[in-house]
Specification:
The protein is of the alpha/beta class and 128 residues long. The chain has a 4-stranded mixed β-sheet with strand order 1-4-3-2, with helices on one face. A hairpin with a 5-residue loop joins strand 7 and strand 8.
Length: 128
């Protein structure tokens, strides 16, 4: 049967789309588009064939700030991704939390976790 669904493109909530664009640039993404040059409210970034879209949300949508989605990125090399993000300043060297640095999980992966400026969870992993 011919493939019907070709990709999933997540739309992440953002309080400040320009700030989100700057953060994702540090993760090695490049800007694909933005709806307004000066004060974007919708934009997209891409890296390695993956696209993420960023959409401004009204302050009333942030009542439960820790209730943010989590996005898992299957990567070819967890250590390399972590080192790259450290060098770019996207993540701090002294992060806190159980997966702030690469580690082996009880569920058979090696991974580390990051939160973007709006609290969206980004998990970079590889099967062990």
């Amino acid at each position: 049967m011919e493939k019907l669904i070709e990709a999933v493109i997540p739309v992440l909530m953002s309080r400040d789309v320009a700030a989100s664009l700057a953060f994702y640039e540090k993760l090695g993404f490049v800007e694909v588009f933005r709806d307004q040059a000066d004060s974007p409210r919708y934009a997209a970034v891409a890296r390695d064939g993956l696209e993420l879209q960023l959409q401004w949300q009204d302050p009333s949508h942030w009542d439960h700030v820790l209730d943010r989605p989590v996005y898992r990125f299957y990567v070819s090399d967890v250590e390399r991704a972590y080192a790259e993000f450290l060098r770019s300043g996207a993540i701090p060297a002294s992060g806190s939390g159980p997966w702030c640095r690469p580690g082996d999980t009880p569920w058979g992966t090696r991974e580390f976790h990051v939160r973007d400026p709006d609290g969206n969870g980004l998990q970079f992993y590889r099967a062990v």
